[in-house]
Design a protein that fits this description.
Length: 390
């Protein structure tokens, strides 16, 4: 007898990724040369601010042999071309491997004559009406219509197949500024919402008792940090171990570690497992000198094209991972490092494209890990209070 409650797969939240990435558009309705020229225009305009990518299928029917060592049976060939890196594969791409390859892209443009994407840009090109009509089933989320040089109006079959076509922006194919602005606005509109995550799941071995429970400003430090973050983030969670959950004030939402035994690394992964499309402002609970201005400075200079925005550590000039905005695109990167046996969030930051800032007040990043550290910071806080009252 089979239980009706049995589930074959874990109930995971899947990120809102299409065939390639979160923001992807298939360009359809025109010759390939026109599609490539449009892709070049948009990518050329936006690549200085965003990571752009392009997907297509080769027309070179004369290429019957695989290039280089692939012809001799190699499954992969890597060449450092100095100005760029080249990978040739002798394996079939799957939707899963393609999403992995394009995971850091902010914008993916696709030649819709050969590949599909979750959103579409339709070009009304007079000689391609029959070809476009064959692809009506692919037009599931048309977001822009472009009229080519000789086009006067949208094809009737487009109007009939897309009920809300009047609400879709329409411009001419030569209106470059409008087209570029469309894609840039779409990227900005899809900017991931920002959640806060207060790391309070450590065992505080060096301190001898829970650092997050130390009262600095009339309340436990974990709640003090969470209260600072609340006006700045969509949601704020206290990250903790399963055995700590009952100790947390129920007024503060808890996000329990589901990647256990990995310290802060596991807490970050657990947050992405819960909400993979959100960015996470991760903060350790052992920085009692943190102020609202320190968080605002980081948030205002957040760079969504990087995998993270972090401060330089005042101690070693490496990125400080425990007051960092981790973008959704960092999730597969973190998992990849874990699969290679690494669970250090700083190592991930050092070896990837990260936007690093100098903290406006480096003292705010001071860690309290030992009783001696605690006494030093207490004196600093008392001096500040005395100066303010003087």
């Amino acid at each position: 007898m089979t239980s009706k409650e049995h589930k074959k797969h874990a109930d995971l939240v899947r990120p809102a990724i299409g065939n390639y990435a979160r923001n992807e558009w298939a360009i359809v309705g025109a010759p390939c040369v026109v599609i490539k020229a449009l892709a070049d225009l948009v990518i050329g305009a936006l690549s200085s601010k965003y990571k752009c990518a392009y997907a297509d299928t080769s027309h070179n029917d004369e290429m019957t042999l695989a290039p280089g060592r692939l012809a001799n049976g190699a499954m992969l060939e890597y060449t450092d071309q100095i100005n760029y890196q080249q990978f040739n594969y002798n394996t079939t791409s799957t939707p899963f491997s393609l999403r992995q390859q394009f995971s850091e892209a902010d914008l993916v443009l696709v030649n819709g004559n050969h590949q599909q994407a979750k959103s579409q840009v339709v070009i009304v090109y007079h000689t391609k009406a029959a070809s476009l009509q064959k692809r009506l089933a692919q037009l599931i989320n048309v977001e822009l219509i472009l009229l080519a040089e000789n086009a006067i109006d949208v094809f009737d079959f487009i109007k009939e197949s897309i009920p809300n076509w009047q609400n879709i922006p329409i411009c001419r194919l030569d209106e470059s500024d409008k087209i570029i602005a469309f894609f840039e606005n779409k990227i900005q509109y899809s900017k991931p919402s920002l959640n806060g995550l207060v790391l309070a799941g450590g065992k505080s071995v060096r301190m001898g008792y829970d650092k997050g429970a130390v009262c600095w400003f009339g309340k436990e430090q974990r709640y003090h940090v969470a209260d600072i973050l609340k006006p700045l983030c969509k949601e704020v969670f206290i990250s903790c171990r399963a055995d700590q959950k009952q100790q947390i004030n129920p007024a503060y939402p808890v996000l329990e570690d589901t990647f256990t035994g990995l310290g802060p690394y596991g807490a970050i992964l657990s947050a992405f497992r819960e909400q993979p499309d959100s960015a996470w402002l991760v903060v350790a609970c052992d920085m009692p000198l943190l102020e609202t201005e320190t968080f605002k400075f980081l948030i205002e200079r957040r760079k969504i094209s990087a995998i993270a925005t972090a401060y330089n550590s005042p101690d070693n000039e490496f990125p400080e991972p425990l007051i960092t905005i981790w973008e959704p695109k960092s999730y597969p990167v973190l998992l990849s490092f874990l699969s290679q046996g690494y669970s250090c969030p700083r190592k991930v930051l050092i070896n990837n494209d990260v936007h690093v800032l100098q903290a406006p007040n480096v003292d705010a990043l001071t860690n309290v890990n030992t009783p001696d550290d605690l006494e030093k910071v207490k004196r600093t806080i008392h001096q500040k209070i005395a100066s303010a009252d003087a």
